[in-house]
Amino acid sequence: MSAEIINGKELAQQLRNEMKKEVLALKESSNITPHLTVILVGDNPASKSYVKGKQKASNEVGISSELIQLPENTTEQELLTTIEDLNQNNSVHGILVQLPLPSHISEQKVIETIEPEKDVDGFHPISVGRMMTGKDTFLPCTPFGIVTMLKSKNIQIEGQHVVIIGRSNIVGKPVGQLLLNENATVTYCHSRTKDLTSYTEQADILIVAIGKAHVIQKQHIKEGAVVIDVGINRLEDGSLTGDVDFDSVVERASFLTPVPKGVGPMTIAMLLKNTIKAAKGLKN
Known about the structure:
three-stranded parallel beta sheet, 10 helices, single chain, 2 domains, Rossmann fold, 41% helix, 11 strands, alpha/beta, six-stranded parallel beta sheet, globular
């Protein structure tokens, strides 16, 4: 048996093609061009690369994008004031502050300052609360992308045992909630979990998001499991790899995401989807 690969790069391209038509229709019907403002504090090379990818994808689908680049020594209050100005600007539909931030700035305070109606990252406590209770909201982009990938292959979620390795507020916790909303049975594992393999080998769907290269091997999963690899790790030769040992797991899984060209491109696609949603106006 060899797993079917869920190619996130190809799926994201399909979604961008659809969004391009959606943006054009919105312009023609309402004279509205979705606008995303990204704030980058400091010179983190990885953050710069992510922002560049977001701007390129925005331009491709016709979303207007703006980058506000602030120096590393920007004070917390200066950043909060910048966000508050954008909150008041009706031409700005989505606000994204690229994380991580310099250590002297509170990420939580920054997230909570963004108006929920412009929270296209889906991190605001109000957005999280609405997601928890199954209300319409902006879903966090990586978990949203994962669920979209599963559905694109008509993979059954309802009634399946989903095991998630990782409990971050950005990926682990919210993806579990989204799958619970889809009627899956969800188990969270993390660094303090004892006998991790006893959980991973039960998983119908295994989602790995811990940031350690090749933690999951063929022997850790059951035959026919669906494996979603969220990890991005850079090896000594400069190449990227996931948390899953692709070459061994591909022989045992039924579906598997690669790294790169897996979850990463879907995260940006979902950000665009949220920005279009913001431009249309969030419905209750």
